[in-house]
Amino acid sequence: MVLFSFNEMKKKETLIGLVLGQIISLLSTFISFTTSELARKGINAPTSQSFLGYLLLATVYGSIMLYRRPVIKAKWYHYFLLTLVNVEANFLVVKAFQYTSMTSVMLLDCWAIPCVLVLTWVFLKTRYSLMKISGVAVCIVGVVMVVFSDVHAGDRSGGSNPVKGDLLVIAAATLYAVINTSEEFFVKTADRIELMSFVGLFGAIISAIQISIFERDALNAIHWSTGAVLPYIGIAISVFLFYSILTVLLKTNGTAMFTLSLLTSDMWAVLIRIFAYREKVDWLYYLAFATTAIGLIIYTMKENDQERQRGGEVVHEQRKLLDEESGGSLRDSLIGAST
């Protein structure tokens, strides 16, 4: 396979990354499928669908953190800003399911790739080869095709307002790029348990406030039967597992492996839409998917040794700044991008 050499495949971390990546892909597909089903039932409470997941993260990782009693390695308000962006990104993508199809939502997530490229280049000083930039360009073409296919397909695209839904997903993907870049920075320079504890804590608090202001009427209107409760429980468990595994994957294999893994979730989304929803998929979706897949393959091409060594030096400098300059300018500029 082009993405990995034979020697790399023998490495334990690569094999673990492939397994973890596919678990994340399946979890992402399950969350999207369940969220889409809730939207079909008229349940319009986006923030509440993430609340239990954050609460579970806070309970489990917060308990571990209290037991360990570690020294906090990063400023709490950095985690707060990161979590605020996370909550609003989840809100936007769940809201998008009310307007566009599940396939469009999952394919348009690829917009996060060029956003990550820009963010890491500006704030983390990461350099990219012409090959990676070419892959990003091809990926953007695929994203444009998805939007155009929704306009072309009209009422067959599986949503009441596909263009509005597509724009919401693009906005969410941009925020996810900020989140993923920040999380990779923290798991490599701070502490994974600390990150998950604060994300869960602040996520639950922010979600609770947002629910009390905007979603009380929507929650009161829901008929809380087994069919409505079980999807919420399933999403909560999936969100907990998704973030738990994601932080491990980001630390051991980086964002490239995570991005590649999510590509397979797009394939699952198309299959679910065809066989479970019995919907007709516009032919441009297949062309968009192929274009996006080619772009992702180019983007995740193996880096040469010089690029990998330079990346290691960047991480070393980030860790040094975090240890020696609490509240240093690098973290402020990185997290400040989310405000």
TrEMBL record:
The keyword Amino-acid biosynthesis does not apply. GO terms for molecular function: transmembrane transporter activity. Pfam families: SLC35F. It comes from Brassica napus. The chain crosses the membrane at residues 14-31, 51-67, 79-99, 105-123, 130-148, 168-186, 193-214, 229-250, 257-277, 283-301. Coiled coil: none annotated. Keywords: Membrane, Transmembrane, Transmembrane helix, Transport. It is a multi-pass membrane protein. This is (rape) hypothetical protein. SUPFAM superfamilies: Multidrug resistance efflux transporter EmrE (SSF103481). It is found in: Membrane. One of its GO terms (cellular component) is membrane. Belongs to the SLC35F solute transporter family. It comes from the Eukaryota.
